[in-house]
Fold FYVE, RhoGEF and PH domain-containing protein 2 isoform X3.
Amino acid sequence: MEQACEKQDSVCNLVAVFENNRNLRRRGSCGSFWRRSRPMWLACTCLTRPVFFQELLREAGHSKAFPEDVVKLIFSNISSIYRFHAQFFLPELQRRVDDWTATPRIGDVIQKLAPFLKMYSEYVKNFERAAELLATWMDKSQPFQEVVTRIQCSEASGSLTLQHHMLEPVQRIPRYELLLKEYVQKLPAQAPDLEDAQRALDMIFSAAQHSNAAIAEMERLQGLWDVYQRLGLEDDIVDPSNTLLREGPVLKISFRRSDPMERYLVLFNNMLLYCVPRVLQVGAQFQVRTRIDVAGMKVRELTDAEFPHSFLVSGKQRTLELQARSRDEMVSWMQACQAAIDQVEKRSETFKAAVQGPQGDTQEPKPQVEELGLRAPQWVRDKMVTMCMRCQEPFNALTRRRHHCRACGYVVCAKCSDYRAELKYDSNRPNRVCLTCYTFLTGNVLPQGKEDKKRGILEKEASAAPDQSLVCSFLQLIGDKCSRSLPRSWCVIPRDDPLVLYVYAAPQDTKAHTSIPLLGYQVISGPQGDPRVFQLQQSGQQYTFKAESVELQGRWVRAIKRAASGQTPEGPDEEDVSD
């Protein structure tokens, strides 16, 4: 039997004959189909004797020109696969062929031996690495190349290359599945082999899935290794159980600089790595600047006209304002982050349910409130304020510089942030905080002389959010003394004070530099012939504004006309003209 097996041509040629055989595609009786297809079954279960493996192993042991381990790595477990076919699968099918008249069935034979086909998974998983090793040693070792070339030219190889023979075991299980599927389709409804053949087909399908899973796992590990190498193989991030979800470049919106910076994100199933490019890319390409745990992370879109396609990633360790290059890229990043968050939350809920058991608390948990110090805040950008967000004193470059409270993210002066409190998100290390956060986090009473003073008429926060204002946007106040120092101002008509226009130096300021009671004012087009310009006039008072677009100018004119006539919004159904 083994001699007959060795005389078979290569599997690839025989399967090609099988696929080109038109008789196998004709509908006919099961017996006639089996009589025509059984030579193909026997050919498919026969492997060419592993001549390459034996000869290369013999040469490696004799001449020591190349390591024996290299040969074993290239051919993996091909010897075990060959012995299985030569000593078990092929003889069993041959006996059934010889006794086909008395026992016209093969489903039971395949069922008995199909579980052993999972040994192909190891070979398939190693195939890509084996192909690389083969190419390397064909170039590196002359004796290795001579042995391979000599066997390829011999009759035993069937005039096929070693690479061709190495590919055949990878294709073998799918061929079994196709052949058995056609066999089942041609069986009559009352055929005694129908049930066993269907079960055998399911087992062959399972073996094929096992091989596919092995390939997917190999690709996952290879992708992880490539990422870890680019990040410098740091001990605290290298974990083979991680799943890489997405990676790619993004722009980081700085709270100090006006132009965003190039950064690189790597999203795993359990963490987001915020990386910066290395100046000297020797070995690692990126340096991990921050690791943000997916557990507790939140992601949302930012509505920022200056930085389109921007989104916020808020984690316990840090909060990042990021900008994508397109809206599709932004949506893709947000969806990937949200999918990772949902998966972590799902596992957490499953764990809690398992711990509590069926007698656990069935009440719906209350939503957690984001408390100061538990997670990194979103820092207000420097250019969004011109004065301290606590004491309302204006900043300058010498005596009152900008600082950030590490608890709330506000931009404050040195006097208002001369306090330190332990923050849980920063491993309970003391951090600079403002007076308000210091009082909240430590429980200490306000020092004498630090109490809040009575608010002035202009001390009203700039309501940048659309739901807090009737209309808000940047406008240029032409002819005003502030226009000489500021190219544009942040203008707001608040919902809780709908008859007054407040003019701020920056969107996050808590004190306006001008307030205009709108009642009785007339709104006219500007004299400069620019459709974006409009004027407010009353009793010798005149203010000239310039909007960034004609549409925005129209929205402001409509809102001011309503306020000038004394109309106030009665409910949420009023026209929303906020920008």
